[in-house]
Design goal:
The chain is rod-shaped and about 125 Å long. The chain is an all-alpha fold and about 260 residues long. The chain is built from 9 helices and no strands. About 25% of the residues are buried. Helices cover about 70% and strands about 0% of the residues.
């Protein structure tokens, strides 16, 4: 049997061991708390950056929506112009103006913060997983619009190629005066373009109205509910609403 002195030393040793283990556990817990705090602070920094990127996205898509609205107005006016006039009444300058540049600028998403969040695994580490799911859904929506843009660009290029078979595009110095980008304003039949070339009379290359209507059809496809119209009426407004909701949620979850 252990003597009294031995039992005393054993109790002391056990007590020391318990204190050491307890100290280690506390140290580990403190380390975990620190790592969690650092991790959540990093996520908060990403969230603040994502908020700023979303605000820039909103400004960008507002400009693009305005360009799509102009393009829809031009296509609708083109349809009315061709439908309500005889072939002899059609003017080359009018058709050129209405058929010119059926494009809108490419999207320029601000994805730096989003890529950092994804690559760091922060989406999985967010305490609010509903917010994380909304961030992923927003990215998926932007990718969908990228696909729409490629479709619209392809249809627009085809329309312009057809337009080149029925209208004379050789207006002097046109690219210096008006550039090649999509127009930001629209006015018909009076326009800056008409004023610039009112003394330049070019004849149509088309032989009859059937040639014109063939080209018109390609523009109507672009401007239809299978083309750009849903972008302006629903898709871009929905994306903007999603972005604003995300901004509000991010600010609530990660206040600066």
């Amino acid at each position: 049997m252990l003597g009294k002195k031995s039992r005393k030393y054993l109790s002391y040793a056990v007590g020391e061991l318990v204190l050491v283990v307890f100290g280690i556990l506390i140290a580990l817990q403190i380390n975990n708390w620190n790592e969690e705090r650092i991790e959540q602070q990093q996520i908060a920094d990403y969230a603040h950056a994502l908020t700023r990127d979303l605000e820039r996205d909103l400004a960008m898509i507002e400009v693009i929506k305005a360009e799509i609205d102009v393009l829809i107005s031009k296509i609708d006016t083109l349809n009315d112009y061709v439908t309500n006039n005889s072939f002899e009444e059609l003017e080359n300058i009018d058709l050129y103006y209405l058929m010119r540049a059926p494009f809108y600028r490419p999207y320029a998403w601000n994805r730096t913060a989003l890529e950092q969040i994804k690559s760091s695994g922060a989406l999985r580490q967010m305490k609010n997983q509903e917010l994380a799911e909304k961030i992923s859904a927003y990215e998926a929506f932007t990718n969908h619009l990228e696909g729409d843009f490629q479709f619209d660009r392809t249809v627009g290029i085809s329309a312009v190629e057809l337009a080149g078979t029925v209208i004379d595009m050789s207006y002097p110095g046109i690219h210096d005066k008006f550039g090649s980008g999509s127009p930001s304003t629209f006015s018909f039949p009076e326009s800056e373009f008409h004023d610039a070339y009112k003394g330049t009379e070019l004849a149509l290359l088309a032989d009859d109205m059937e040639d014109i209507k063939l080209v018109l059809n390609s523009y109507l496809i672009l401007g239809s509910y299978y083309g750009i119209r849903p972008r302006a009426l629903s898709e871009i407004p929905d994306l903007a609403a999603n972005a604003r909701e995300l901004i509000d949620l991010l600010k609530q979850e990660y206040p600066e």
